[in-house]
Amino acid sequence: xxxxxxxxxxxxxxxxxxxxxxxxxxxxxxxxxxxxxxxxxxxxxxxxxxxxxxxxxxxxxxxxxxxxxxxxxxxxxxxxxxxxxxxxxxxxxxxxxxxxxxxxxxxxxxxxxxxxxxxxxxxxxxxxxxxxxxxxxxxxxxxxxxxxxxxxxxxxxxxxxxxxxxxxxxxxxxxxxxxxxxxxxxxxxxxxxxxxxxxxxxxxxxxxxxxxxxxxxxxxxxxxxxxxxxxxxxxxxxxxxxxxxxxxxxxxxxxxxxxxxxxxxxxxxxxxxxxxxxxxxxxxxxxxxxxxxxxxxxxxxxxxxxxxxxxxxxxxxxxxxxxxxxxxxxxxxxxxxxxxxxxxxxxxxxxxxxxxxxxxxxxxxxxxxxxxxxxxxxxxxxxxxxxxxxxxxxxxxxxxxxxxxxxxxxxxxxxxxxxxxxxxxxxxxxxxxxxxxxxxxxxxxxxxxxxxxxxxxxxxxxxxxxxxxxxxxxxxxxxxxxxxxxxxxxxxxxxxxxxxxxxxxxxxxxxxxxxxxxxxxxxxxxx
Length: 527
What we know:
Jelly Rolls, mainly beta, disordered N terminus, 40 strands, 2 domains, 6-stranded antiparallel sheet
């Protein structure tokens, strides 16, 4: 197999060709399956994931006109922005875990399909085009004729702090961006010229929540806006995403002018977790959207109770407008219980595809490489996919991972690992936070940050089956000769602490596959 495709890469590393056949999910034991092989021996990988009651993709849609939150469970999805075009809704978000920034599409606000790996900080309709705002280097902006693209290059204007950027469109036709923390700024932009002509402080300092509340800190951020009844509304997040379960919140204020003065809502906080007994923790960072039927909803991110390691999920709740022009979540909306779906609309295929034959021509949206670009990491070959290694062990391998869409899942991997090569699979949250099982030179190894187990095989054969089970934050590791008879490793790894409170950053646990070696080595995955 030729390695020429990787010759242009600046890093040395090793070539590994990973073959994956089919990924398919089914009830209780659903799965991703595939084959990994060296050019002279076979390395088979089967990942079985999820314990859904119906075996379908994990939608919040209950099928009876109601839904339960979260409406999107797909890793760590946060900092939401949404736009409606007729009956179609498009959502983008900050998604710092692989597979990266995505655009999601819905026609009922409950069922969502990812369709494009091109996100940013905010998406907005501007005249007959769309603007994509980005906050990674001051204010950045790109334009497209429609949400589907093609998007032109994002130009970073470099004008100060644009943290958690959003847009605001004035009734006079002017276009603004709002961003920054702890001091938010108002930027007047000319999208056609991709230029900023005026910068000033927004003049909103947030909502003074009660001193006795337990939060991570004031941390005003997470900007979004709406216009209704002659008022501009700004929504902000406060309290911090990390820290206690009661940390985060969404607050609102309004003004007759984009430049203020701003009046805090009497209904603040609009969204908040009051006790750790609630089904969702650290609820906050909300964005409003209206429907063609005239209803209004708020989408926000939150952690599932006792599951920060699964990342932030997307929740949806109805809002109502009061006679004095303020919005609030109705008192009969109870977190964790069934909620009436928005009127009208229709379901789209929800979530990531739960099968994959790795035949290309593109890598499916669900796959990614933590803290690294997929550029140059893989190519499709006759029997599957070639994947380039980037390390000598799991701490540096940067495995290929997919988001978690269920609270409990398992996967099985059949591998044939050549001498001197380490092949493994498991749960990955970062280079210092993983729970993996692997085979190298006749020894099975279960390893995590603070513990490891090594078991010499009765024979020095290179072919082995692995099984990884994730239930209640415990990772149980098994191996066997045929995929039917299993030996369980004595050490069970608890990964409940694999989240930002313990490790910083915003990574979440994900199933992953890896191969590593101390010298150039190649593997192929085929069905």
